[in-house]
Specification:
The structure holds two protein chains of two kinds.
Chain A: H1 8-42
Chain B: H1 2-23, H2 25-35, H3 46-58, H4 65-71, H5 74-89, H6 97-121, H7 123-128, H8 144-165, H9 168-189, H10 196-216, H11 221-244, H12 246-252, H13 257-260, H14 263-286, H15 292-314, H16 317-322, H17 326-354
Helix pairs in contact in B: 1-2, 5-6, 5-10, 5-17, 6-8, 6-9, 6-10, 8-9, 9-10, 10-11, 11-14, 11-17, 14-15, 15-17
């Protein structure tokens, strides 16, 4: 592809660039994995939203007939 | 591929220099013609200098990884890392170490991205100023378009990742910071007003606030005070630099206060901003992130900074020339120590608080 004969200096620089990008990408993958582990293990326990509202306040159950109040 | 790059680079660089000489105004044009004889068609030494230029391009055909790191302005990044880390650690909410590390990393990456965007936009200025001539874009190791691509890509990655790792507000603040530095400061204010430093300082002041927001999820008084501290500190810091770097800014056509309003006015501005800075610093020391130790250090630092500013204000150019701008250089060096110690003592106070001492 190249019209130039291989040149040591160019190859050295190109290798440094490829190595750097490769290592940076691997570090990024590792970081996202670590973040995922932390987020999943640290998150609040999840359960079906059947007895609590999102704010944690108890869900209002249907009011009892007004006549029964003391 | 390599052949294409080699053919393109000198042409791209010539184009930049040509644009510079034809559109940069009379002063900049004159400077380019004077300092770069190879680009002036009327210069008798054209042939010889041209060869020198081409040879210098042939020696730097491929950028190494380090050149891309240089594009992110690692020295500015180190200050961003430090202030963002302090903002994050002094916040009343503690983050998981992995999340905290990610937050600081992506704030730093965002700062690096705005640095790359700045290098893309300011390549013509950087080419003229001695201090910046060896940067990757003006020296021809990286094309301006590549700097733009790196800047945009890293901006997107850093903003999205910070928002995912911490919260949306932190990500939004980082996005705003990048926009502010690249567009408001670099593209708009830097070349149009001598107050460029004042408003541009806001971009550098955001990192501790983003760190705080990453931890707490909201902006509070303490975050604003840390922002204000850097914001008010930036003008005296840079104007002191401009006092002893005069010729460079003038040659690049950047409207520094020293060029537009004169050096006497700049000295007065340094004093005024330093006086305005002191109450901000004391207020921060009296806030929730401060304490007795912080207050003591703050009072000492600000007293010394005020004395320095007062000395600069009292001097004139004759005195400054006589001792090689010793007072201005000392003030500039101290300004770096000033900011570092301020944030270091916030951190110390937070550490003392965990031991039950320190804090108000």
């Amino acid at each position: 592809m190249s019209n130039f004969p291989p040149e040591h200096e160019i190859h050295r620089r190109r290798f440094s660039r490829n190595l750097g990008v490769g290592l940076a990408l691997m570090a990024f993958v590792a970081l996202v994995f670590a973040l995922t582990v932390v987020k999943v293990t640290q998150g609040d326990m999840m359960h079906a939203n059947d007895h609590e509202s999102i704010t944690g306040a108890p869900v209002i159950v249907p009011a009892a007939p007004s006549g029964s109040a003391p | 591929m390599a052949g294409g790059r080699q053919d393109r680079q000198p042409a791209a660089c010539r184009e930049l220099i040509r644009r510079h000489a034809t559109t940069g105004g009379p002063d900049r044009g004159a400077f380019v013609a004077h300092n770069r004889p190879s680009e002036d068609p009327t210069d008798p030494s054209e042939g010889k200098a041209d060869m020198t230029d081409i040879r210098s391009f042939e020696n730097t055909p491929e950028a190494g990884f380090g050149d891309y790191v240089q594009l992110l302005k690692p020295r500015v990044m180190s200050l961003v890392v430090f202030t963002a880390l302090v903002g994050l650690l002094v916040a009343p909410v503690s983050l998981h170490p992995v999340v905290a590390f990610s937050a600081v990393l992506f704030i730093a990456l965002g700062a690096g991205a705005s640095g790359a965007l700045n290098m893309w936009w300011d390549a013509d200025i950087d080419r003229v100023m001695r201090r910046t001539q060896s940067r990757p874009v003006p020296s021809g190791r990286i094309e301006a378009g590549e700097a733009l691509a790196v800047g945009l890509a890293l901006s997107g990655i850093s903003v999205v990742m910070l928002a995912l790792a911490t919260n949306i507000l932190a990500g939004a603040l980082l996005a705003f910071t990048i926009f502010f530095y690249a567009v408001v400061y670099s593209m708009w204010l830097k070349r149009s007003t001598p107050q460029n430093i004042v408003i541009g300082g806001a971009a550098g002041a955001f990192p501790p606030m983003i760190g705080w927001v990453a931890a707490t999820g909201s902006v509070s008084l303490e975050a604003v005070l840390m922002f204000a501290l850097i914001f008010m500190w930036t003008p005296p810091h840079f104007w002191a630099l401009a006092l002893f770097m005069k010729s460079d800014y003038e040659a690049a056509g950047v409207p520094m206060l020293t060029v537009t309003h004169g050096r006497k006015s700049t000295r007065r501005h340094i004093l005024i901003y330093t006086i305005l800075l002191a109450p901000v610093a004391v207020w921060a020391a009296l806030s929730q992130i401060g304490g007795p130790v912080t207050l003591a250090v703050t009072l000492a630092l600000n007293a010394w900074f005020l004395i320095g500013a007062f000395r600069i204000w009292k001097r004139d150019e004759v005195q400054a020339e006589a001792d090689g701008y010793a007072t201005e250089k000392a003030f500039f060096r101290f300004s770096l120590i000033y900011l570092f110690l301020h944030f270091a003592v916030f951190l110390l106070e937070a550490a003392l608080k965990t031991q039950g001492i320190g804090g108000w």
